[in-house]
Amino acid sequence: MTKEIRLSVRPLVEYVFRSGSIDNRFRSYSSMTEGTIAHQKIQKTYEESDQKEVYLKTEIDFKGLSFVIDGRCDGLLKSNDIITIDEIKSTRGDLGDITETTNPVHWAQAKFYAYMYACNHYLDQMKVQLTYVHVETEEKKLFTEVCTFKELETYIMDIVKKFEPYAALLLAHREKRNRSIKELSFPFEKYRAGQRKFAIAVYKSIADEMDLFAHAPTGTGKTVSTIFPAVKAIGEGHLERLFYLTAKTITRTAAEETLTLMKGKGLHMSSVTITAKDKVCFKDKAICQKDYCEFADGYYDRVNEGILDILANEMLMDRVTIEEYARKHRLCPFEFSLDLAYTADMIIGDYNYIFDPRISLKRLLEEQKKRTGLLVDEAHNLVDRARGMFSAELFKSPFLQLRRAFKEENRGIFESAKAINGHLLKLKKQYGNGQRELDEHPASLIGLLTAFVTESEQELLNQKEGEAQDLLLETYFSAKNFVRISEFYDERYVTYLEHEKNEVKIKMFCLDPSHLLQQFGKGYRSKVYFSATLSPLHYFKDMLGANEEDYTISIPSPFAKEKVEVFIQPLSTRYRDREQSVRPILSMVKNLLDSRPGNYLFFFPSYAYMQMVYEQFEEEDWGYEAVVQSSGMAEEEREVFLTRFEAGHDKKLIGFAVMGGIFSEGVDLKGDRLNGVIIVGVGLPQLNSERNIIKEYFNKRDKNGYDYAYVYPGINKVLQAGGRLIRTEDDEGSIVLVDDRFLTPKYQKLLPAEWMDFKVIRR
């Protein structure tokens, strides 16, 4: 029986023909939108008998494999005696730098389409044409070649021959993977309470091609409850690929550990963890140039061998494994992980690889999306992360510096930087000091920035060095991003100006990211958003772009409520009352420690408040050690903080930390390593102009703006902090909520059911 492999023309020819080095010096590439426009302009010049965007497909049998290959050619020209395949490529670079041999991949694409058409229509010869077009000047440069069918067939079969070992490896892996999945059972002896229900909901969502929003408290076993049914969906043919997306390293580790567990139960499935470039780079600086980095030099000449090696020997490709093979084959570990991602069954990485318009994995084709599922862990974090991804800001000072630096060097940059600097000065005078909302979309500024981007590209192509060039490059990317984000601008945005001393900042601020999250998630078979604190569910559904028909599930806590004692101390922790609250809080803490000794985490709404209480705590000798979170802690410092929490230690420990910080999420201090959590305040974000703009925006849309901007994000921090305590069925301890608002009906509705049997601490 012939085994079938389906793939598109482009990834096939890229695998065979890419060569050379990674060289991330400045390059002038056209954007996808510009490229589309350039394509359309060329296609409009076609004759009436010509066709554009023609779908082509063929089957090639080789070594017992049937390659089903398809794609769309840009142009099929029939106006001459010979049929011509036209492959259009757009650029901002100098057309004079492009020769007939510049890019073999482009020829390979065009010749593959020519072969497919000739094969389907029994033609003896075809004309192959490469059309390069400059996106601004619309200048064209053409290369043509007439090929006989025999020449095309020989050329194509050589490509297939070179691709076959890789294809055979992937096919053998896929068959073994699917067999192992069918035989795979749940990796634990039994399901926890609610876990089976959650896993079934995930599988059904994928099977039904629906999205799921799941509130699953700590202890549900969220990671295995999502990965296991998604893996089963791959085995049943519903999915071909899976993304596990998260904001934090520790939750990526949990996904890796779950796959390791399932591998021990017989699962044969590949996974790749993508780690940020600056963390995995082997060099002192992440300068991706062949004359600086030996791992960039000749990367594409060696990468295929590296891919074949790691895929033949490894299943779970985490950071350590990828670095090992990257060193072995002298490859950039970051680029290697990206290349591996397009072969893997599961990709583990940050949200931005799917949702960020600047970073997302754009090589994932629409056809592939339909067979790809997204598991979005700790989805409560995605709201503010998405606001950041879809917002953009600019400062005036770099343009003033560039105006001075390039006055004599480059008149175009001087004039364009001067115009932007002047425009921002004009806005500053118009709107005055402080922060002010602009009346409209900054269209005039976008026009000036577009001109600046064009002038900068021409200068940067010269590859000069120096501080002025570094500043120009940095400002160019900021300006380009501002222009890019302006394409998304609609009624969900606001533009504001901030003026302090001589600096002016302008920001396009995304108030409601739901629409863009929908757009960037469009096309995937299923998206599962889950968190222990996806509460209140209606708020997160609204902010993450849910549709009315999407599925929801809320799992009760699997732990007996007797495992945790909850206390409420009704003090005011509002800003004006904080100084007076210190003594009653410490008095409560002393009583708690005397009656329930152990290790405690002590969460505060701000560093200043934490420091105020800590300083008073230090003045009194209670026989307790303390460890304090500091701003901007390095990874090693965080580890030291957590390792201080030891079980059975003679001296007990209090960890002073900030709500919403690094220690209030993804921290597992099991058993006697943690005996209690004290949470001071209701977690409200600091009052600021951006939060107030969000508040007003939702008020105008008949929603409670204060809740959307302050209360719901705040209570989420409280729930996350409280979730540090009970991590396993054997854990128990105390939670103290310090704030009188926790006794109001509004906040009582937002607390988990298992916290409602609380006791009130009276003074």
Summary?
The chain is of the alpha/beta class.
First-to-last CA distance = 80 Å
Helix content: 40-55%
Task: Briefly note the structural class of the backbone.
Answer: alpha/beta
Overall pLDDT level: 91
Report the portion of residues in β strands. 15-25%
CATH class of the largest domain: Alpha Beta
Strands, count? 25
Radius of gyration: 29 Å
- Poorly predicted runs: none
* Overall number of domains: 4
Task: Compute the number of helices.
Answer: 26
Strand order within the widest beta sheet? 10-9-11-8-12-17-7-18
Largest sheet data: 8 strands, parallel
State the CATH architecture of the largest domain.
3-Layer(aba) Sandwich
Which fold does the CATH topology of the largest domain refer to?
Answer: Rossmann fold
Coarse morphology = globular
Assign the CATH superfamily of the largest domain.
P-loop containing nucleotide triphosphate hydrolases
Which secondary structure elements does this structure contain, and how are they paired or packed?
Layout: E1 3-8, H1 9-17, H2 32-43, E2 51-62, E3 65-77, E4 84-91, H3 104-121, E5 125-134, E6 140-148, H4 149-183, H5 195-207, E7 212-215, H6 222-235, E8 241-246, H7 249-264, E9 271-273, H8 277-280, H9 299-313, E10 316-317, H10 319-328, H11 333-341, E11 346-350, H12 352-355, H13 366-369, E12 372-376, H14 382-389, E13 392-395, H15 397-405, H16 411-431, E14 434-437, H17 443-460, H18 467-486, E15 493-500, E16 503-510, H19 514-520, E17 526-531, H20 537-543, E18 551-554, E19 564-569, H21 578-595, E20 600-604, H22 607-619, E21 625-628, H23 635-643, E22 653-658, E23 676-680, H24 689-699, H25 705-722, E24 733-738, H26 745-748, E25 759-760
Parallel strand pairs: 1-3, 4-5, 7-17, 7-18, 8-11, 8-12, 9-10, 9-11, 12-17, 19-24, 19-25, 20-22, 20-23, 21-22, 23-24
Antiparallel strand pairs: 2-3, 3-4, 5-6, 13-16, 14-15, 15-16
